[in-house]
Amino acid sequence: MELEQLKQQIEDIDGQMSRLFAQRMAVSGQIAKARAAQGLLPDAAGIREARAGFQAQAGEDLEDYAGVLYNTLQDVSQSYQTALVRGKSPLCDRIAQGLTDTPPLFPEKATVACQGVEGAFAQIAVQRLFREPSISYVNRFEAVFSAIANGFCRYGVLPLENSTAGSVNKIYDLMMEYNFSIVRSVRLKVDHNLMALPGAKLEDIKEVVSHEQALAQCADFLKSHPGIRVTVCENTAVAAKLVAESGRRDLAALASHDCGALYGLQPLAEGIQDKGNNYTRFICIGKDLEIFPGADRTSIMLTVNHKPGSLYRVMARINALGINMTKLESRPLPDRDFEFMFYFDLDTSVYSPRFIQLMGDLESLCETFKYLGSYTEIV
Question: How confident is the model over 305-321, as pLDDT tens digits?
Fold first, then answer.
């Protein structure tokens, strides 16, 4: 048989499948309404039996493929059923209210808390986000959240992840603890330099101090100098200040050029991060849900039942709605054995009906669900 004839057969079959799919969805909707009217829950056992029958009819060679197809059909059906009978979702109402209450422009002036001291990368991030910020420096990530919670600052800026060293896990834990929202984010190019007092030489250095993320990002350089001891401190700017105040020429800091210049240090080695495309992503958080115009990225955190397929159903729902997932990361739950919290970044406009449907769907699919906000990222 000619290729063109085979292609035509496929098109004919696809047409039949499309019509049957529409019929299936219509019946699925009727089932959802009837079940809701009687207060009945989905028939999990019946779904398993139907899937087994569907696979058996496909034949042994196609059994596994048929199972994937059936699961996809079922996930799409559940999404459709939920949208029909759910009614208004409290989260969707909250998002709609956030869109209404948020001013049309991101503020140019604000009181902002960040961890570290003058010269820190967090300060640079704050100045990228705000034209005229009033910055409060604190010594711990927790203190940023506390400053917002107690009304001392409207916003806080924190590092969330680095392209080389990965995520700052403490921030995820604090986002779970506090009911704050992400209102904007920014990506900064990060270059680390070995900074020391004037007159110091590389061969003199016996100790390097910096933030643990900076040390991780320069692991190759540090491994090539095994005689140098590594000490962790709160921040790259704190490290530079410590070196400046120490008077020691055997002590150096990993910090930016600007930070080194601020504290009167000189570079002994420049651009020593492992990768040239080294970026850190900072988030701006606030106590209130603020969704500024143009928001096209959404962050969520969730846990699912510790059962086979639970996470798959979440991802299948995202895929079924055609929403792009730009990040998925897991964090172990400290009070549960081998169970995890999952962090998602979704690339979708907050104004999209599919986005609203997904937010409503996920609440019913997940054991716990936390909407972290919808926002714009500055690159």
Answer: 777 778 888 888 888 78
